Amino acid sequence: MRIALVCTPPSDANLRLASQIGVTDIVGRFPGLNLDDMFSLRDRIARFGMKLSVIEGYIPHDQIVLGAAGRDRQIEDFKTLLQHMGKADVPICCYNWVPNDEWARTGTRSPERGNAMVTSFDVDLIQSQSTPISPAISDEQLWDNLKVFLEQVLPTAEDAGVKLAMHPDDPPLLALRGQRRIIHNLEAFERLVQLVPSPSNSICFCQGCFSEMGLDVPAAIRRLGPHISYVHFRDVRGCVPKFHETFHDTGQTNMFKAIRAYQEVGFDGPMRPDHVPVLEGEIADLDSTAPPPHDSEIAVDVNTYNGPDIPVPPGYTMLGRLYAVGYMRGLIHAVRGG
Predict the structure, then answer these.
(1) How does DSSP classify residue 312?
(2) What angle is formed at CA 317 by the lines to CA 315 and CA 321, rounded to 5 degrees?
(3) Residues 211-232: pLDDT tens digits?
């Protein structure tokens, strides 16, 4: 188990901070399709003594999910990305099967320790806050589109030495904003890995999502263990259709048992904290309940520290991540016997 981190913004100061607290792996956003940009991102992280291990978020794939007119072009671009990752020795590509590439929250609240702000979801509010996704397609169409995608890209991923890691729908609902969703339970992940069997067809085990499903998280880890290549380590209180994020030690999952389950299944990949509370001294962008697109994530000077004058989306501030990393390291040490 290797502790990974997303740095928001990815400034020198935040990368240096990540290195100082013992993070070994960095998760980068989609850098575009220029190979030099991939190398530049990898090399910049390496200068701080860490490895770029995952590309996650904002990879254009909406036409693939919907089986729309631009599918073939996006599939070819996805293959190019995987080839670039292979050349840069970046081993994991995290993706999802949501047309708009977003996790959905309906607001923020402060029920956590010390009134720390966290994101929340209430299905009764979602329709009033969102525009329906169009066109709506069926579950089987989504599965058929996923099979086409995997059949075409997995050979490229295998050749590049890259694993595709599917993230669960968040929230894990049967439908949202008028669009069906299919990656919302354990059975869906078991179907996924059998749909096109390949060593590159793997799972991003987002603990928060499985907790939102109301599942026994350690049992789910054991059930899917051989296919897990990447982990989002977080927790919530409540289950769909209503829940809110928590500190890593105040949620409904026994996190020690979760870490022990990862050890039992032999997981040795990157694991990052996610959706952390906003702590004192940080200002969250309350107009956003999802991370910004890759081309605006570093709208500020990347060499500027993420201080109180630089708001970022709730869940993506840095101080809560520092707390989470220390907590995770302690659990890993405890499971390993000190």
Answers:
(1) B
(2) 85
(3) 999 999 999 999 999 999 999 9
Identity of the residue numbered 306 = N
Determine contact, residues 152/76, Cβ cutoff 8 Å.
no
Integer Cα distance of 199 and 194 in angstroms: 11
List of domains in the chain: 2-335 (3.20.20.150)
Beta bridge partners of 165: 94, 202
Whole-model pTM: value is 0.93
Distance in Å from the first CA to the final CA of the chain: 14
Classified as helix, coil or strand, 244 is strand
Three-state DSSP state, 209 = helix
In the numeric block, which tokens belong to residue 305? 């520290």
Cis preceding-peptide flag for 135 (omega within 30 of 0) = yes
Q: Where are the alpha helices (DSSP H) in 161-287?
A: 186-195, 207-212, 217-224, 255-265
